[in-house]
């Protein structure tokens, strides 16, 4: 198995498939979970899928400037910042409402 | 900074000064406003004189010119990538409109001597609005024009919404929304002109130096004309005017009916007819028919009104119809009549609304049948009312006559591109307004001011105070002056109008 | 102007300017502070103006003696209102025999009325205001008389209208006076609409024909360089008229010349109160009596006649328009005379008599032609004499009203003993208007009748003779009822003679009414060759005098004594009498049209339409926006995940579109 894997190094389509799968998992989680923390985690997965996408394209492009990696690092930093803000909001909401169930947060209803 | 910029800046600087005065010194605030607008009036005199000195030299060349000649121009590049400039200057039409605005705002400030609620904000907004109005009349860059145009329209919302009477929020909202719809049309038209010309500039002169395709003109002339027409109370877009005017406080009604409505006619002439002459030829008759309706419809509408302000507002609809009618006749007399009517109606209706405010401040009613016999207790106000009324029915010796005969002659003489017979039929139809106007003016004023005093409370009312006498006196004197010495203002306006006519050929 | 013209000729503008200055000074400075001074200064200014008018007339007729050529001079004018290059309205002074005639009439009557008013209005609340308005009126009327072009005529035309409005409504807290003033203004305004359209037509065609005309008559060479297309001299020029009449354009088969003259006549008919625009004049009697004497008898109401006379060559050229003038004039004179026989208010009788006499002047103008201009002279002659005796009648009526405090003739009676001077002057005026030799009316009426007969309009001649009889009848009716018999009302018992300031002008007018008939008018006012005074034409004099005497005899038999015969006659006539007394219900017809139709069928629906349809449309668009927004806001669930789903779906949709486009 390992041998097989070693011999057959994955190409671009495989990596992209992985990204799509990861992204879809994240999106599914974002749309279905009712828990705000779980939704944040799903967003993390989606962000990582995007970051992975950058790295993959960088790896398979002929350009040797490592732009993709740079962007991936950006994404990671962004994600960290986002999780900080997001968690802060969630905690604040929890303090106010005593729940993190997203169904309760509908004060913007038209 | 040149003279023209100072004229725009004077009210603005006065506003800034007022902002820094604490609210509790409200007496000082109104003095600052009066002095500031008084300075504006003086600057206007200087402007008129300097324009006249500069322009009288090339009267002959203007007779055959096809381009407006500007005087006292100030030009500063503002936003180069889009070719936006700060471009201000004057020609004869602007000068007459600036005189009008200066007079009205000065008298308007005097007439609002008794505003005691939020005096500071009131005068600040009023002066901001006036800056915008001056800007519109003096700017010759379409972008700048539009910016000032919006600046002139928007403070109105607050002025009516806060200091108004009656259903003021409704009126303020209706007025603002309708005028913004109009300016949306205008903006689209401006952008289309900018794009179509390919000159990468908003400079009115440069935009006027090229010819637009007939198809383009056919589409965009009515768009700009109607866009300005909303502000000029073009039927059927006039309906903001009765509600807006009757809810607004005195000075705002004066300024709005007296000056702001003129922006419509001004823009229609200055931009729509100037830049799109072929479109004007195509659409002239249509708009003439529409404005004929305007004239008669407003007059008949005024007959049954019971509220003095509604009464005057409908009469404004009728009179502003003359402005646009004159523009639509597309000849020298019509254009001149339109500008004269703008001036004359501005003064007249400013006087009307000022007087209504003064009478309302005493009787606390504006319902005409509730008044009666007021001439006995307030002879000055009654006399001014009658003078304004007689001016509005076109009595010779007052300015209305000069303007209206120009418009009628313009309509009757016709032009080379339109069916003259139909133009004449429309003109003769429009002349019926002189009778209908007489009917409603005399009915309304006779009920309010003549006959026995109906309400015993009225016996104790007083006549105009000194400030009120000053305010109304200035406006009455202007009406008489223009009516008796029409050549002075005609000499100012006429040279500026030749290019408009020559462009049509 | 040639150099030998006199000082007054060069300063002819003083005649209208003096009242104008006095109007401004009295109105602004004097009347609020010094009531009595207002009357004095106003009167003095008019007297000065009168003196100027006499001097001007003397200078003119020294230059161009009686019986010879009388050219039209414009000694002073300037460009007032430039409509466009080649079309401007001048303000100026035109001097010719008829303008001089009118200047003299206006200033004389006005000066006398001013003097009279100082006593009549004494102690009145609005004394200063009264004289201010009276000065304004005199200025406007003089401006109208001296107008060298049709625009100045129109301008002053409106100004006399407004001064008349102000003076009729002088007692502004009296509702009937207010209503009358409105009615007068609006009716004449309606007529002015015709005038205005006529002016538009004349100025357009005048402007268009002007270059041709100028080339043909050699305007520059003939010293007409400054002529404008709206000048009367141009509009009356035969070359212009020929070109105008020859235009191909017609309106419903009427030539444009005739059309514009008919429209101008509409204005004239309004101001001169011709049927059916006469309804305002009887009501105008609500004004103070001296005002009625000045404005609604002697001067303003003859403005219409003057306008037709001023444009007489054009009317005569058109022919049809002149006929219209003649028939409208004849009809009005009969119609008004018939109504005059039944009215009870002394001033209203005089008002209807004014209508009738104005009809006379109009018909005289109408029957004249370019060749046969006797009617033109006659009309001006009658205007001249009528101004004096009718002003006198009104002043007499004013003196009576002043004494007995009522307008109804049935509450007067027996006044000859108490008011001898008023009685004598009133009698002189009554004889003059009835056309009894040797009083003034005899001569002028005689000329009118001769003109009608001579031009072959026999129907009009018949009507005019009949009217002469009716006039004598109704004038002697009020004379007998007012001055003879016994005093009937409380006021009549305490009546006293008018003060000297009132009777002196009356006495002067009585002298004028008695002697002006001998004035050789034809020597001075004529068109073309002077037609010598034709002497006494028996074919005219005998029927006219006969009818007048019959009228007097009937009045005497019916109204001397207790008047029971008159009551019996009225009963016998029944509804006919009632119809006449109600002025043929014309007022009711107007009321129906204005109130029922214009107010209820036009103005109300328009106001409704504006409120419901136009405004409703705007409100509806606001409503549609708001409810559209409300409907769309339902999509806003507040659930982030729903938005996410929509978002994802949207992205997928766009991707699919793009993909399908690519493939």
List keywords for this structure.
heterotrimer, A: 110 residues, mainly alpha, C: 663 residues, two-stranded antiparallel sheet, 29 helices, 4% strand, globular
CATH class of chain A: Mainly Alpha
Tell me the number of strands of chain A: 0
Per the principal axes of the C-alpha atoms, what is the gross shape of chain A? Answer: elongated
The ordered string of helix (H) and strand (E) elements of chain B is: HHHEEHHHHHHHHHHHHHHHHHHH
General form of chain B:
globular
Tell me the distance between the termini of chain B. Answer: 38 Å
Which structural class do the helices and strands of chain B define? Answer: mainly alpha
Low-confidence stretches of chain A: none
* Uncertain residue ranges of chain B: none
The total domain count of chain A is: 1
Structure description:
- The complex is a heterotrimer of chains A (110), B (505) and C (663).
- Chain A has 110 residues and is an all-alpha fold.
- Chain A has a single domain, classed as Helix Hairpins.
- In chain A, 75% of the residues lie in helices and 0% in strands.
- Helix content of chain B is 75%, strand content 3%.
- In chain B, β1 and β2 form a beta hairpin.
- Chain B has a two-stranded antiparallel sheet.
- Chain B is globular, with a radius of gyration of 21 Å.
- Chain B has helices at residues 3-19, 26-55, 59-64, 92-111, 119-138, 142-153, 155-163, 168-197, 204-207, 214-231, 240-247, 250-275, 277-303, 308-329, 332-363, 374-377, 379-392, 399-413, 420-431, 433-449, 466-484, 486-504, and strands spanning 71-79, 84-90.
- In chain C, α16 (346-367) packs antiparallel against α17, α16 (346-367) runs antiparallel to α21 and α20 runs antiparallel to α21.
- In chain C, the strands form 2 sheets. A two-stranded antiparallel sheet of chain C has the order 1-2. Chain C has a two-stranded antiparallel ribbon with strand order 3-4.
- Chain C has helices spanning 7-10, 14-30, 35-63, 97-120, 127-145, 150-168, 175-217, 232-235, 238-245, 256-271, 280-283, 289-298, 303-310, 312-318, 320-340, 346-367, 374-404, 415-418, 420-434, 440-454, 458-483, 490-493, 500-515, 521-524, 538-559, 564-573, 575-581, 586-633, 640-662, and strands spanning 73-84, 87-95, 250-251, 254-255.
- Classes of the chains: A mainly alpha (110), B mainly alpha (505), C mainly alpha (663).
- Chains in contact: A-C, B-C.
